[in-house]
Specification:
This protein has 5 helices and 2 strands, in the order ββααααα. By secondary structure, it is mainly alpha-helical. Strands 1-2 form a two-stranded antiparallel sheet. Helix 2 packs antiparallel against helix 5 and helix 4 runs antiparallel to helix 5.
């Protein structure tokens, strides 16, 4: 038993052992903190999607290098447009580069179970980025990810990591064609 202040500064009793019963038609669920209502610490769900080892054929260093290069491209195009004084617009090279970066960061964030902005924070800047080599690496990564998803899920996953990387590769290809 513990006590807590109520709405009108009245002392109320809180029973830590109370587990509400499901109403009619409601499925049975486990309520309460660990150790209460049949929920044990060992029974907490384990995230099966998080992998300690990385995807076969794709290293963390390669993903980070792609993130660094995409962020550098996006930054360079944004700086170029701001120097020209045109300002941010849709369907510009800076917008396309930012879209490619966002899609790739979303894919890697989905895989690593992290927020994409956390991944992009504190990345170094590279002056000369080889766009065609980056595009080739992204296309190879798409093939590896699609084959891994097909082996694991036995189907193509809509909205999966491979589709996000494919989207980023398409945006980068569009950026190269329009340059």
């Amino acid at each position: 038993m513990s006590t807590a202040k109520g709405v009108f500064n009245q002392r109320t009793e809180i029973n830590d052992e109370y587990v509400p019963k499901p109403t009619t038609g409601q499925r049975q669920m486990k309520y309460g903190p660990p150790g209460v209502g049949g929920v044990d610490v060992e029974e907490q769900p384990i995230n099966v999607y998080h992998q300690d080892e990385h995807i076969e054929g794709i290293s963390v260093e390669a993903e980070n290098r792609n993130l660094i290069e995409l962020k550098s491209l996006s930054t360079d195009y944004a700086r170029k447009e701001s120097k020209e004084g045109t300002g941010p617009h849709f369907k510009t090279q800076a917008a396309t580069a930012a879209s490619a970066l966002g899609k790739y960061a979303a894919a890697i964030g989905q895989e690593r179970l992290k927020n994409p902005t956390e991944l992009l924070r504190d990345l170094p800047h590279i002056d000369n980025v080889d766009k065609k080599a980056l595009l080739d690496r992204l296309k190879r990564e798409v093939k590896v990810r699609q084959s891994n998803e097909m082996n694991e899920m036995l189907r193509e996953v809509r909205g999966g990591v491979a589709s996000h990387v494919q989207s980023a590769a398409d945006k980068l290809e569009q950026l190269i064609e329009n340059a």
